[in-house]
């Protein structure tokens, strides 16, 4: 399957507000290739004077949806690319993208499980592609998604996660809120730590494959915690979100 | 050159962040390919390396001993690649 990684012009089909800080861009691609859940696209913006800025954004959609992809983008206060994507871009616009990229932080139904997904903030995006793909492929592999958010307003895909879990096909979504919790909340209300990870991971056993995505410090804490919980380091894959946003 | 470790830490990404540029250089997906650290002998996928992008190039370090394994610098016309810290890279034949 040789394919050159080339830039193409995508059309913005629609833009959906997910939370006050995140938007999902649906892009139609003239040269669409099925991605592997967890992969990303590079987005490149070029100013009239030739100045270019490039960032990576994880694919949120499942590969079963053909011809288009969803990229969920968090607006960063000093993000020159994310600010453009949030404040300037409108449906019908065209932007330069290349992808899908990456082969390390990926999961497909054929890889089996059990699956332990750990997300911090917008780190849920590539994991959402895995969960959506899991559903679309009819996979029933035991999957726990531990998702840390600051407040209930920060939860991306809240309704859909609720529905996916309600389908009862082996997906459990466990949330923790670090700053403010919903009324009458009885779940976790702290940062992800070793005790929480061992509770969430234990039912899946030591054969679980773990994917952790989020800010660097959360990823470090979660990876260390999982090793402490008895998971082999080679079963733990991480994707750190950098200071420049997206995955790069 | 000493930076507080916390700052260094915050700016650290994974090999995934280098996936695009490595694909561009080698003409294919590289992050799932194994490599070996020249310094400590750790073997692992390129995607598991620590990646630093806040430099005039891209620096990939070993997650076990944190020594430099790969450096990539791009100018408008050329790509400079320093792989002294890696015993080998594996590329798919095509």
Folded structure, characterized:
The complex is a heterodimer of chains A (248) and B (94). With 248 residues, chain A is α/β, with parallel strands linked by helices. Chain A has 5 helices and 11 strands; from the N terminus they run E-E-E-E-E-H-E-E-H-E-H-E-H-E-H-E. Chain A has a 6-stranded antiparallel beta sheet, covered by helices on one side. Chain A has a 5-stranded parallel beta sheet with strand order 9-8-7-10-11, with helices on both faces. In chain A, helix 4 packs across helix 5. Chain A is globular, with a radius of gyration of 18 Å. The relative contact order of chain A is 0.17. The N and C termini of chain B lie far apart (43 Å). Chain B has one domain. Chain B has a 5-stranded antiparallel beta sheet. A 3-stranded antiparallel beta sheet of chain B has the order 3-2-8, with no helix packed on it. Helix content of chain B is 15%, strand content 34%. Chain B contains 2 helices and 8 strands. The chains are: A alpha/beta (248), B alpha+beta (94). At the A-B interface, strand 6, helix 5 and strand 11 of A face strand 1 and helix 2 of B.
**Through-space gap between termini of chain B:** 43 Å
Counting helices, strands and paired strands, the structural category of chain B is: alpha+beta
Shape of chain A: globular
Give the number of DSSP strands of chain B.
Answer: 8
What is the arithmetic mean of pLDDT of chain B? 88
Order of helices and strands of chain A: EEEEEHEEHEHEHEHE
Give the averaged pLDDT of chain A, no decimals.
93
Any idea of the CATH topology of the largest domain in chain A?
A: Rossmann fold
Radius of gyration from the alpha-carbon trace of chain B, in angstroms: 13 Å
Q: How would you describe the shape of chain B? A: globular
Q: What is the CATH superfamily classification of the largest domain in chain A?
A: Nucleotide-binding domain of ferredoxin-NADP reductase (FNR) module
- Biggest β-sheet: strands ordered side by side in the sheet of chain A: 4-3-6-1-2-5
N→C terminal distance of chain A:
26 Å
Q: Strand order, biggest sheet of chain B?
A: 1-4-5-6-7
Quaternary organisation of the protein chains: heterodimer
For this structure, what is the CATH class of the largest domain in chain A?
Answer: Alpha Beta
User: What percentage of residues of chain B falls in helices of 4 or more residues?
Assistant: 10-25%
Number of helices of chain A: 5
At CATH's second level, what is the architecture of the largest domain in chain A?
A: 3-Layer(aba) Sandwich
């Amino acid at each position: 399957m040789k394919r050159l990684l080339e830039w193409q012009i995508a059309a913005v089909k629609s833009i959906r507000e997910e939370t006050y800080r995140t938007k999902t861009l649906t892009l139609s691609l003239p040269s669409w290739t099925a991605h592997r859940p967890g992969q990303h696209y590079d987005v490149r913006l070029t100013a009239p004077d030739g100045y270019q800025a490039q960032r990576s954004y994880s694919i949120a959609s499942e590969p079963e949806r053909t011809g288009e992809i969803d990229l969920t983008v968090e607006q960063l206060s000093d993000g020159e690319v994310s600010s453009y994507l949030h404040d300037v871009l409108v449906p019908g616009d065209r932007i330069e993208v290349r992808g899908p990229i990456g082969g390390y932080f990926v999961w497909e139904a054929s890889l089996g499980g059990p699956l332990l997904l750990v997300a911090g903030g917008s780190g849920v995006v590539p994991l959402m592609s895995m969960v959506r793909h899991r559903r679309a492929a009819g996979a029933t592999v035991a999957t726990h998604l531990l998702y840390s958010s600051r407040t209930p307003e920060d939860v991306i895909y809240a309704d859909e996660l609720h529905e996916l879990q309600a389908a009862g096909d082996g997906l459990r979504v466990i949330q923790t809120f670090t700053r403010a919790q919903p009324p009458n909340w009885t779940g976790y209300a702290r940062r992800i730590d070793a005790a929480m990870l061992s509770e969430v991971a234990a039912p899946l056993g030591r054969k679980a494959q773990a994917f952790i995505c989020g800010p660097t410090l959360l990823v470090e804490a979660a990876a260390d915690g999982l090793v402490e919980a008895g998971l082999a380091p080679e079963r733990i894959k991480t994707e750190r979100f950098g200071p420049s946003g997206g995955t790069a | 050159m000493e930076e507080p470790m916390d700052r260094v830490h915050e700016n650290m990404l994974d090999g995934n962040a280098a996936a695009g540029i490595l694909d561009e250089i080698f003409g294919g997906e590289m992050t799932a390919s194994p490599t070996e650290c020249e310094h400590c002998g750790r073997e692992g996928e390129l995607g598991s390396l620590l990646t630093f992008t806040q430099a005039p190039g891209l620096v990939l370090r070993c997650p076990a001993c944190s020594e430099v394994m790969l450096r990539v610098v791009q100018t408008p016309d050329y790509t400079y690649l320093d792989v002294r810290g890696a015993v080998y890279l594996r590329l798919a034949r095509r």
